[in-house]
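Anyone have tokens for DUF2732 domain-containing protein? Sequence:
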Amino acid sequence: MEIEQLIKINREDERKNLATLSISRLENLAAHILANKLDYAASAALLESEAADIERQAQEWNHV
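Reply: yep, here.
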């Protein structure tokens, strides 16, 4: 197998793993919102916090 193909497979695996992680995190956030009966403002704040975490993580990956 050529190196280009291996790189492509690795990138696809990374995307799948990131998607799985994102799905899990969103499901956990939804469960937290429902279990704690958060109002719209608290739910929005929670989502904004998650978005900030994702943005910070993306910036860290850009420096690797």
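Residues 3-35 form the longest helix (33 residues).
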